[in-house]
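Researcher: I'd like a structural prediction for the single chain below. Treat it as a standalone chain; there are no partners to consider.
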Amino acid sequence: MMRRRHWICGLLLALTPPILVAAQTEPSPEDPLAQRDRQRLALLAESGLERRTLETESGWLVYWVGGEGKPLVLLHGSGDSAGGWAAVVPRLAGDYRLLVPDLAGHGESEPAEGILPMAVIVGGLEALLEEVDLERPVLAGNSMGAWLAMLYAHAHPELVDRVVAINGGAILGEPTGLTLMPADREQARTVMAALRDPSSPPLPDEVLDAIVVRSRTGPIARMMMDLAGMMGYLLDGRLSEIETPVELLWGESDGLMTVGYAEKMAAGLPRSRITLIPQCGHIPIAECPDRFVELLREILARDPPTAREGEPEVDGLPSEDDRN
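Model: Treating it as a single chain, here is the predicted structure.
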């Protein structure tokens, strides 16, 4: 049970991408995460996206929609919000019809407190995609968002063009020993270092402290209150049932959900392809947004991966000498 608890934490983890960017800005006496949230929402609006709401069984769901072109749904990780995509949305809105929700219990979406079952988050996504008229969208998700994208494609293969899983998935992996709900600044420093490339600048102390405070009552803690319920949403031993093509777009430096995890998923998926992002960690949409957008565009311009025989297809995998 401890192993499963650890890796479900890992599947949920996405400690707000703009936290990663905060290291490159001047410290503020205000909570840096609150300041970040406002800046991200402003950027979504400036990109031409419209804020809308949908009433669901679990409360109001907030989402952003806009842009022109092929439909593309962007799903954030636990602890994040629609604004987590702010660094890449301006680069995508000109060529894609974007749908970017605050998942249930995150950002401005309800429920705002109490236990947050995985069933509520999945149900909110189902209701949103039923409400918004998109014809066979691409579902792109980071961390927990990748898990949700795979679950939706598993249940509704006829409604999804393909999945782009970004450093996340729907199976258990090997424990890493990381403390994913840090109790103090040093634990936060350790886990954030593992999530990012060593060349990325370290996070300032005030950001680490804010992560600690939010981890006590934030979405990850609330979701872990229903650990047993989450177990039913894992797809271990069932990946072969996913008919939809799955692109695994992976920050190579991720110390939590490693390239080995991506390879394990690819081995179980009938139609998959791995594309690596060098010198980038668990949250490429914030740590290396330019390279992420470039590779995402390349992936979506190509034909989706087909049924394969033998080893999964891998783009950009370094040689053994390069790894050493």
